[in-house]
Amino acid sequence: MVAASASGEFVKSLSGRNRVVITATKSGFERNETVFAEHFVAAFVGERADSDKDGRVSLLEAFVYAKREVERAYELANKLLTEHAVLDDDGDGVATGSPGIAGSKDGYKASSFFVGPGRVAATLLTDPRAVELIAQQRRVQQSIDSLRALRNTMSETQFQSALEPLLVKLAETTRALRALEPRKP
User: Fold this and answer.
1) Positive or negative CA dihedral for 155, 160, 165, 166?
2) Cα–Cα distances in Å, from 124 out to 44, 102, 152, 179?
3) Domain match, 108 and 142 both
4) Per-residue pLDDT for 92 more than 70?
């Protein structure tokens, strides 16, 4: 992540295979001080950025959260938005401000890249049942991600038919894992 002013200029030179490039601005012409970094870091604290509620925050979730919070901060300060964060993770050197949205080539890798173990309770990591459920959850999520990558090669009916049992399995696994979590006082 490059969070400096005019950081959008770095996308082309940093872009590559198996890389996620995030910049606070979309071009070298956005030269004002940025606030993106503080919101991006804040995404990894707490649960607000965890949009899929899996207990972990992906780079994509952190990006979307930070971008939304930057827009909110500018709006609350009644200032013109002078930074437009972008993300490139398909290696083409062209970043987008709307990754992960239908039609965008960017966002797939960022959605499966995590910083740290997430908020899974430390006690769960020593429970063999929880360890197996976490592994199962990751396998199901990888199957969902693979299916989403193939979406354009399938009819909508085929896609939905293949997706539904995976989502049900993911929900069941997540529920079983949450049942093992220690209760909050």
Assistant:
1) positive
2) 20, 35, 38, 11
3) no
4) yes
Amino acid at 127: D
Which of 22, 26, 48 lies closest to 106 in space, CA to CA?
22
Helical spans, DSSP H, in the chain: 11-14, 36-42, 59-76, 128-149, 156-180
Q: What span, in angstroms and rounded, lies between the C-alpha atoms of 43 and 149?
A: 26
Q: Which domain holds residue 170?
A: 124-180
Q: What is the reported pTM?
A: 0.71
Identity of residue 55 = G
How many domains would you assign to the chain? 2
Q: Which of residues 124 and 146 earns the better pLDDT score? A: 146
